[in-house]
């Protein structure tokens, strides 16, 4: 195991035995692990690898930590009113609690301060190379990796360093997914993706159409209901809009009370439907379509206000868009509406532009990695993807345990190669496994996991790895 | 040390987060930041942050260690909490520890050491120090009944545990001072007291903190054998300060144990195996 005190600049390392194909030297970083990204998942990977005794180099294209949660970052999707969707206990790192006097659903600026404190508390910044983006990550012999970096924006020369392992934590909510519509180019109104929506002032006094019923789409629709002169909300299907509070407590905490009792999914679905009937009741009377699925079969939407504003007539639910005209939008039911501003809250797609698609098991090149535990790829035992999950709860808890699992796996590669080999077999056999009930098939649900199912699977993997104690 | 089994799924804890409570934190920080880890002192049952503010905080700060002491809920200047459990206390510790600027060293005294062992499972401390640790179990009750039947019996039946000043301090401490300290003692929550006897063993520590155990062979709360047992749990032997009472931080020779702790920390103890 390497010492974590080896913190020289990557290019100052003495070993320059190998060369890149274009003749530049490769500096050998020994047993050091490379972490790509210093957002929530990257930070916890750095912290846990260092805690397990590894040297860590983390590359971050921005100049601060926090990734998506740092509103200063180009790729940050947060808007002024972004709050957590899952409540604190599900969202914090399990070994670094958020302050208990914070609200149940903290604001994004609190999240950023939480990550900054995490980085300072565990002294993580000394591992991070800010303003450095990763250009290429290539496997080389001995399950090691050549990582090529350069200054963000492409300035300066490229540098290649060789690492014992790589953690990919580049996030998956920064590359907007935009649907195609007939006539969209000719539309005279303003069109934007939710990633560029920052502030309710952008909506004030306008006729706004919000497309998409993810948590972002619902948030923006609610803000449009308050600020815009008119708000249409277009959804592909009917959804279950869960309130953030039920029975006097955050809804996810109530749900987990049932999970703790191991109440089966069917019963939980029934209870859920029953609770909704007691509160908001039948949504079809507002013109919302009836959900074509049972609750828990799509990514949960936690928004207490959407139904409220629909009930007050401030949001007009409309079906899917058919095509765009010059100054209007035609809906699939034949109606035409005339928004000035169309906001596509249609989500994001993962992108790993520095990795060959094959490495992550994406043989067809559709952009969907095929992984086990959403983390490990077959044939590359020293590569892990952290944070590539869409849980019905917070991501950071999950990223933490993914990092712990990977750190322990790396440690066992040195001390108990037999166990590491058995783990690799399980990865190969389990690629593509799902950790949720049946979900609707769409890119939205590529990485959907039920947090309890998923974390139990991680627990099993960890126990087996460590000898089934 | 055997391989730790970590617990990942905590549905019950997530579903029922601990209630927030106003917590008293006293501190003394060195004038010059020297990059040393902050110390967080956790008092035992009945004690508050004041017990460390008396001598140890200032002394640690004078040797370059930022020092903090908290009062568990229901103690000292913290919010009253009659229904507190060991989990609430451990929550108080992790909350304050995570709020410190850097990874902290947790120093638990008496039953506060038990609270620290629970907190260690939820917070990767830089190191841990267990001072005259009362780690609980039925043996603790036996010892307490033998040494202090009058103060202990009511606790068995749901009353508060009373400690006598002769248990807590050596005869070297002037009587007036001993009386003054004893008068400041409060009571822990009833449920927490019971959990000290019947509660579950602490889960394994996260982040492999090195652990130091120290105490006094003449402690009339924690028998010497219990000290040895506690230290063995962390694969070491206890540091002993003969002639002192249970409250090492208040007794006449308070300087010796805190110096020993700081000396140990200055040597930058390596992470535990595992």
UniProtKB/TrEMBL annotation, chain A:
It is a single-pass membrane protein. The keyword NADP applies. Pfam families: FMO-like (PF00743). Residues 1-28 are annotated as: Disordered. Keywords: Endoplasmic reticulum, FAD, Flavoprotein, Membrane, Monooxygenase, NADP, Oxidoreductase, Transmembrane, Transmembrane helix. One of its GO terms (molecular function) is N,N-dimethylaniline monooxygenase activity. InterPro entries: FAD/NAD-bd_sf, Flavin_mOase, Flavin_mOase-like, FMO-like. It is found in: Endoplasmic reticulum membrane. Its cofactor is FAD. Its main location: endoplasmic reticulum. Belongs to the FAD-binding monooxygenase family. This is Monooxygenase. It comes from Micromonospora sicca. The lineage of its organism: Bacteria, Bacillati, Actinomycetota, Actinomycetes, Micromonosporales.
